[in-house]
Amino acid sequence: MAGSEDGVRGTHAEVPWAQELLEQLRPAGRDVRRVVAWLADGVHGTVVLQDDTGNLLAGTPIPLDEVLVADIVTGRIASAAWEGDGRHQRLVRVGQPRSAAAGVLAVSRDVPFDRRAADMVTHTAQVVELLLRARESTAAGHRLQRATSDLRLAILQLLMVEDIVSARRVAAGLWPGLLDTDSACVYVVESAAEERDRLLEECLHVTAEQALVVRCPAMDQHVIVVTPGEAAARELRTVIGRRPGTFLGGSARQSLARTATAYGQAVSALAVAHFRPDHAAVYAERTHPERLMDPELLHSWTAQLLRPLDALAHHTRAELLATTRLGLEFTAVNAAKVLGVSRNTVRARMERVEGLLGVSFSDLTARAVVHLALNTQVGMEPGPAAPAAEQEAAAGLCDVLSGPALRTWGHELVGRLALDARDLRRTLRTWIAAGGNSERTAQALGVHAQTVREHVRSAEPVLERQLLAGGSDLYEVVLAHLATGDVPHPRLAA
């Protein structure tokens, strides 16, 4: 047995095998397993590469002297030669001790090592070390990217549940000043799912770290952008302008506490963007029913409907409201992904709200009016409970929906469906009354369920709103039908 402090050094570029070894460093050939296999073939032996804990990295396992391996791994010696039982072995340290690229390259063959074979082992160890360092550097880069992505998502989830203080604390370390604002806009950029990572990188580039850019945890096609400034919004429009098949939906400016509301607005605007020639839309560009209601009546009714939640602790109340708001916009599964909780947690919170409010979310009209109340409540200042006499005199849903401006808007919106000979208005009216269930609607109309779905889908471009996907678009159409009297009002405790 023999040991040395340093492996054999030298340059042998003129030797054919050295040229072949250099070829392994080309971008197309950087594979440790391929290099190890090349060395085994070149020295007519068996080669193994293992890390400093003995885990196999490449090659074929062979019996090695544990003491020798330990001396090499700890840095006591750099290389060693061993002979016994008709076998000849060379062991060379790869990387520095205790480094990420540390390990041992061992070669075993039936005949003694000549100068050529010894040089091949030494130089191959150097190449392997370079490849391991490059792999570790790449892996570290990927880990950093994942950690940064997870932090962005965590900040968004904190904003979604109105925990602004914690969101600012998390953001301050990596993006100082990003959330030093009282309000922001939310944008949702959509592309094909396989293009999303490239879209994300482009959004990060054009916003120059002046916006919170998040890979949507619920929709594989979406990138969510929370931006306090207008410049980022303009840059996002340039992104969709040069990327075919990309769409942009934006919210109105909202306080950070209304990030969940702004997100719902952005998704709603995204649906409209699919019908726009420039593939972009902003929520404020469209007339919405709540703007046509008497503010005093709307606020009075909202306070009365949501009063059962006022007795809860502030944190619990905010958690239930934020979860229900998202749960009414999206499926329980997608809401859970956005909030970072389980879908059972989302359902449990929504069931608790149902019980407190005395409503059933299986009723589509009930979902629509509770959604209206929740979005109205976000802009209201919490106050003390009203006296019993005032509670009895509070406005009812009929009062809120009876304004002439709202009725005119409702008749105009629903009236668009009359131009279709298939009587889309009757189908949609029946579908809403059936809770959005196509099978029950088909039974009531005496048609096939697929026909119902086709009618509802045909109504979407006419109304410029997504219906089958649910959410704000659908609830606006339901409110229009409630305002015109096409469907009966839901049963509410308030």
Structure, described:
By secondary structure, this protein is an alpha+beta fold. The protein has 20 helices and twelve strands. It is elongated, with a radius of gyration of 33 Å. Helix 2 (32-43) packs antiparallel against helix 4, helix 10 (314-329) crosses helix 13 and helix 16 crosses helix 20. The protein has a six-stranded antiparallel beta sheet, with helices on both faces. Strands 7, 8, 9, 10, 11 and 12 form a six-stranded mixed beta sheet that branches. A hairpin with a 2-residue loop joins strand 4 (79-84) and strand 5. InterPro entries: CdaR-like_regulators (IPR051448), PucR_C-HTH_dom (IPR025736), PucR_C-HTH_sf (IPR042070).
Give the N-to-C terminal Cα separation: 91 Å
- Weakly predicted, low-confidence segments: 1-14, 382-393
Report the portion of residues in β strands: 5-15%
Indicate the structural class: alpha+beta
Largest sheet: 6 strands, antiparallel
Q: Output the radius of gyration.
A: 33 Å
Individual helix count:
20
Mean pLDDT: 85
Fraction of helical residues: 40-55%
Based on Cα principal axes, name the global outline: elongated
Strand runs, count: 12
Describe the strand arrangement of the main beta sheet, using strand numbers: 1-4-5-6-2-3
